[in-house]
Each structure stands twice: as C-alpha cells, then as structure tokens.
Amino acid sequence: MTLILETSTAVAHAWWWRTGDGPVAPTDLALLSEEERERAARFVHQRSAVSFVAGRAASRRILSRLLDVAPEEIRLGRRPCPGCGDPLHGPPAVIAPATPLWISISHTTSCGMLAVARVPVGVDVEAVRDFSVAELASSTLTESERHVVLGTEEGAARTRAFLRCWTRKEAVLKAVGVGIATDLTTVETRPELSGPAVVATGVPGTPSSWVVADLAVPDAWAAALSVPADAAGSRSEIRLHQHV
Questions:
Q1: Please, what sign has the CA dihedral across residues 220, 239, 201, 124?
Q2: How far apart are CA 18 and CA 244, in angstroms?
Q3: Beta strands in the chain (DSSP E)
Q4: Which DSSP state fits 96?
Q5: Mean pLDDT in runs of 10 for the chain (244 residues)?
Q6: What pLDDT score was predicted for residue 87?
Q7: What is the bridge-based pairing of β-strands 221-228 and 209-215?
Q8: Yes or no: is domain 3-230 CATH 1.10.760.10?
Q9: How far apart are the first and last CA of the chain?
Q10: Domain residue limits, the chain
Q11: Strands 122-127 and 12-18
C-alpha cells in the first residue's frame, strides 16, 4: 500500500473529480466490468451514464495507486446489507485484490467522489441547484432540522442549509450500509454546527453513533463524509484531494 495511507494520521481520505456531459470516454469504459457496462447502457440520460462510467473508472485509478495494482485488476462489488443481509444492495467494496480498506462512491451533476478508510465510511456529494426546500423538508428533515433550515433566508442560503442536512444523512447512512431506505426524519444531523457532528442511528449490528463532516468541495456542490464515532477518536482529520 502506498505511503498516503501508511503514514497518514487522517481517519479517512476523499477524492473528488469533475465529469463532463459526454460522450462516455472509451478509456473509462474499458476499465469497467461487463456488468457495469450493461448498467451504464441502461441509463436514459447520457449525462447519468457519463457520470457513472467516469466514477467507476476514477475510483479504480485512485485505488490502483493505493493498492499498487493496475486499475484493470480492481474488481468492485458490494458487502452484504447490514440490515437484511442481501448481497445485492449493501455498501460498495473492493472485491479484488484483497484489502482491509472500506470505500464509498458518490456522484452528482458534473462531480464524483470516492472515500477510502480503514473503517466503514460513507460519502455523498450533491449539486447545488434550485428546488423547493419547503416541499422536501417535511419528509426528509427532523423537527429541529426544519427549524434551522426553514429559518434560513430563502434562496441560496436555505438551499445550502438543506443540502448540509441531506449530504450528512446520506453520508452516515451509506457508511452504515443501508442507504436512504431508512426514515430520514429520524436522523438528526445538527445543521447548526459548522464542524463535525455526531449522528445516532438504530441499525442493529452497526455502530450506534457516527461522526459526519462537511467537505470543502467547490461551491457548485455540497458534500459530507462519515465514519464511526469511536474510530475517529484522535484521528478526526479527513484529507480531501482532487483527482484529475
């Protein structure tokens, strides 16, 4: 394994990259498995296909440097879902080569992210865009989150307050391994805190509390990363890198 993880005092590392509108790059597509290529072909919108293909290719290129193998040798799959044991919808994992590392992958309009840690990790990135925060608040936010978000001035500030909650929830639930199948109104992310927040979850067999932190990606996006609270300890730093 390369020096970046052997000597780092960070609890997790995250990489972000920009994606275009297409077409799909043949060099990216060549790195995907047959199953991933079939999945990419099913996307209705080209931008979604480009984002997915670029994300899987970028993840392999980053992991190839960390694991000291060619990107073509990296096989991605899933861990079993901690909620139901289903191997088809658990968190992403490096199937080959064998490694103790945990990963999380996320992508949105024009941006993708990969998080890597020695403990369960979740990352989420969302494009900052116009949408009705008020319409989404009742089904996605806790009462205290609604108070903070809807109390923020309408416009860009309110949108960012909502996305802080959303990306934190997604990051935590992806780290847990169940994704947003959980009732989001039960996950309190403390959006009034600009620094890391401790979030409680109730999924049996997983840590009861998680640390989640916002990531300093460019203003076009909002992002967050989460790891188990007991794993953060003295190694609370998260290193963010740009992959080009």
A1: positive
A2: 8
A3: 12-18, 75-78, 92-96, 102-108, 111-117, 122-127, 197-200, 209-215, 221-228, 238-242
A4: E
A5: 60 94 90 95 91 96 96 94 76 94 95 96 96 94 96 95 96 86 86 89 75 95 94 74 94
A6: 74
A7: antiparallel
A8: no
A9: 21
A10: 3-230
A11: unpaired
